[in-house]
Amino acid sequence: MPIKATVLLKKADHLTSEQFIDHWSNIYPKTFQDIAIVRQNIKSYRQFHLNAPLTAGLKERGVPVSGYDGMATIYADSVPELLAVFQSEDYHRIVVPEEEKFLKRAEVVMMFGEEEVKW
Question: Using one digit for the tens of pLDDT, what is the confidence trace for 27-46?
Fold first, then answer.
């Protein structure tokens, strides 16, 4: 059964929002995709970048906004295939150190489920 993982991310304190987005958009995908098990098991990887000025403006108007800086969406054919990526030696040896350069790994929140398109 296809599975979707939604990953909520917070930027590292030493980076501006622009630096976070630049690193995440331009450096991280290459590192992530260089891992063989990622190319084999991940069917789609998407990024949602927070618009900080828009979010701040909406927050001032009383709109409840999250404290996250971005969201990744990852699709795989099954839970075991998705878990194999995150449990692989290459992921921990290569990808985790890269993630530590631009995000707060301890504050990552992951949700797993199936997407249901309504229109």
Answer: 999 999 999 999 999 999 99
Q: What is the pLDDT of residues 69-115, one digit of tens each?
A: 999 999 999 999 999 999 999 999 999 999 999 999 999 999 999 88
Q: Is 7 exposed, middle or buried (0-12, 13-18, 19+ CB in 10 A)?
A: middle
Neighbours of 89 (CB within 10 A): 9
Q: Which is nearest to 25 in space by CA: 1, 47, 54?
A: 47
Q: Report the relative pairing of strands 3-9 and 42-49 from DSSP bridges.
A: unpaired
d(C-alpha 19, C-alpha 85), whole Å: 26
